[in-house]
From TrEMBL:
Any GO BP: carbohydrate metabolic process
The protein's name: Divergent polysaccharide deacetylase family protein
Xref: PANTHER family: DIVERGENT POLYSACCHARIDE DEACETYLASE SUPERFAMILY, UNCHARACTERIZED YIBQ-RELATED
Record bears the keyword Signal: yes
Signal peptide feature range: 1-26
A Pfam family reported for this protein in Swiss-Prot or TrEMBL: Polysacc_deac_2
Keywords on record: Signal
Signal as UniProt keyword: yes
Cross-referenced InterPro entries: Divergent_DAC, Glyco_hydro/deAcase_b/a-brl
Length: 280
């Protein structure tokens, strides 16, 4: 009997350890934000067919902004206001964007108008904005406006000397930085390489935030890779990162086995080895 008991305990430990390991693999987080949503129905539809953990950033002045806002909300997808902001190269930005030299009132009004259109947004990120995010007065006005609207900020990091994160912290606004751009190049191989870079970044740092756009090869790379996401990577929405939610693996469901043979169901009811228990 002691031998049977020890064997049962050994099998239980091996089984439960393997099962627990399976459930605790996913420890690194990958968040993907798709910018420039609201312009092209076909490309937008491909993005909205992807897992709802893919967040969307909607430009308020885009022709389908309100429709995408409602669609994303219905899916339970995290939404950002993709706010046009002044770049260094003076490229013309969309209507309703933020420019250097704006007053606090002007910034507040534009943020409010954007929120009225993208009403289900939980945060904002910058569209272009290499000049804007490096400007302390403008970022101070913006963070005050975001705090009043209870919005988070994602710095797309279009310039290395951005002060957005620093000002956000000073003003009590939660902010995060983009780590990887998926599609600076539209070539399939380049987008694929950047996706793998995001996976490696997540493994090294625990979290990776990647930004892409609703383009043909970006869609193709995401469709291909999200179906086979590594077991140690968990796809999450931006809201999960802003709320600093922890990955809580499900508790292992452990079945108790016995090596003691079970009796047969017909006379003379003789015990039969391996009728119950873990086969050797």
């Amino acid at each position: 009997m002691n031998i049977l008991f020890k064997s049962a305990v050994k099998n239980l430990i091996v089984f439960s350890t393997a099962l627990f390991s399976t459930f605790t693999l996913a420890q690194s987080k990958l968040a993907i934000v798709i910018d420039d949503v609201g312009y092209h129905p076909k490309e937008d539809a491909a993005i909205f067919a992807m897992p709802r953990e893919i967040s969307v950033a909607i430009i308020p002045s885009a022709p389908y902004a309100q429709a995408r806002n409602q669609e994303a909300k219905k899916q339970g997808r995290d939404i950002l206001i993709h706010m046009p902001m002044q770049p260094i190269n003076q490229t013309k930005i969309e209507e309703g964007g933020l420019h250097l030299g704006m007053s606090a009132e002007q910034v507040t009004n534009r943020v409010q108008k954007a929120k009225n259109i993208v009403s289900h947004a939980i945060g904002m990120n910058n569209h272009m904005g290499s000049a804007a995010t490096a400007d302390t007065p403008l970022m101070t006005h913006l963070m005050n406006a975001l705090r009043a609207q209870h919005l988070f900020f994602l710095d797309s990091r279009t310039i290395g000397r951005s002060v957005a994160g620093k000002i956000a912290k000073e003003q009590g606004v939660r902010s995060l930085d983009r780590h990887i751009f998926l599609d600076d190049s539209n070539e399939f191989a380049d987008v694929q390489r950047q996706f793998q870079a995001a996976i490696q970044y997540a493994r090294k740092h625990g979290t990776a935030i990647a930004i892409g756009h609703p383009r043909k090869n970006t869609v193709a790379v995401l469709q291909q890779n999200l179906r086979h996401l590594p077991a140690d990577i968990q796809l999450v929405g931006m809201g999960s990162l802003w709320r600093n939610e922890r990955i809580v693996p499900p508790k292992p469901f452990i079945l108790l086995f016995s090596d003691i043979p079970a009796p047969t169901s017909t006379a003379p009811y003789e015990p039969v080895p391996l009728l119950r228990g873990v086969p050797k």
